[in-house]
Amino acid sequence: MTARNDRPHRYSDGQGFGDPYEGFDLGADGPVADVDPVDDHVLADAVDESQVRPDSVDITALIDVGLEYLAIEQYEQAIDSFARAAFYAPEKSAAAAEAWVNKGIAHGELTEWDDAASSHREALRIDADDALSAAAETNLAAALWESGESTAPLEHAEAAVERDPRLAEAWYNRGYLLNERGQHEEALRCLDAAASLGLRTAWLDDERRRALEALGEYDRAAEIEERARSGLETRSLNRLREE
């Protein structure tokens, strides 16, 4: 849809860590306590799965550790954390769906599109929460598009908007795909919706300009370009002042 690192993803809202953060505990009776998320081998090497009681595993902590790994671009470790969270989470639970969505996002960051699509489909199979299902739909659209499919991505992007009309990234993805199909008027409506929901990115501006120029609305396209340039200059000035 755009360059891989610029594509909008809908990450779950994890709890994060304090300052300083504390490690997570797989359970008071489990084999691992106070696991540090920067220790990239501990989950694979230190946990004997046969000795872990599923009801003692802190699923939220596993998801939070995965999100920490995503934040520092340690995607393989993130995938491992999310996979474990999905494994131990109750079947058909929102926690399991959240783990699958984020696992799919991490696979996408590694351009593992088939694995990403499979993870998002698993979240949709669970279908425990409209917001999570919308996130799975819009990220599945991105994964399928990157895999070279042309029809299914738009179907999933539209499903995402239906499931959660407040999801700005879903509106963006739908607008992008409609632009690709030459349906610029409807694309612009979607992209404007994304902007009204708070999405503020360079790639959104690019897609809005593309739609406007295709519709012959060159003045509006120029206005968006000017605002984007002014915003970039302001951010650069603020960084210089901070330095």
Automatic annotation (TrEMBL):
Annotated segments matching region Disordered: 1-30
Ranges of biased composition (kind: Basic and acidic residues): 1-12
PROSITE patterns per record: TPR
TPR repeat copies, ranges: 59-92, 97-130, 168-201
Superkingdom of this protein's organism: Archaea
UniProt keyword list: Repeat, TPR repeat
InterPro entries: TPR-like_helical_dom_sf, TPR_rpt, Ycf3
Protein's name according to its UniProt entry: Tetratricopeptide TPR 1 repeat-containing protein
